[in-house]
Amino acid sequence: MPLAVRYMVVPIAFSIALSLCSPSAAEVIASKSYSYFDIRGKTADELDRELSRRGPTASGSSARHPGATKIRFGGEATYIQNNGRCRVGNVKVTVHTQIILPRWSSRKGASKELSMIWDALSSDIKRHEERHAEIARDQARAMERAIRALPQQRSCEAMQELVSNESARGIEEHDRQQARFDRVEAVNFQKRMLRLLNNRINGRAGAK
Description:
By secondary structure, this protein is α+β, with helices and mostly antiparallel strands. Helices cover about 50% and strands about 25% of the residues. The model is unreliable at about 1-20 (pLDDT under 50).
């Protein structure tokens, strides 16, 4: 089953606050939360069916996935008007990520082999979704830097439009990076799982 990110991206809303003289400031606020969905099963096929039946869905699609990351961008900017020119004052970009992960609720009594397979799979799902959250945080920082570096304009209306266009470009770039990451992960999924299983098998053998 391929791993995938689900997006819930909200455009950045920018407010206008004018001042004659004020120092510039920038800030990125990143937050993260977790939620879980329970699955049951005593065989690999049962767990796979549960993931297909209970996993989170994508927006506009009924397909379900073993994990997901919902991403919400927000923020605000203020503008400083002085001597007939307008520039960006304070910039704040926020990004919240909610990571949705599976939780095996009927693990007790399962075979050691199935537990090992699940541990490898669930750790890979979590790593995958954590990386999606990291990409979002990195892009929020890049957006803050890009907005802060925008050139002065003749009016604050023009400055606001420039900021809005830059934020839209930033979100588009974010989506491209996330999609690129998913493509790479999908290609390498089988090799990655075999490597994880071999590492766990070798780790168990070394512990005996």
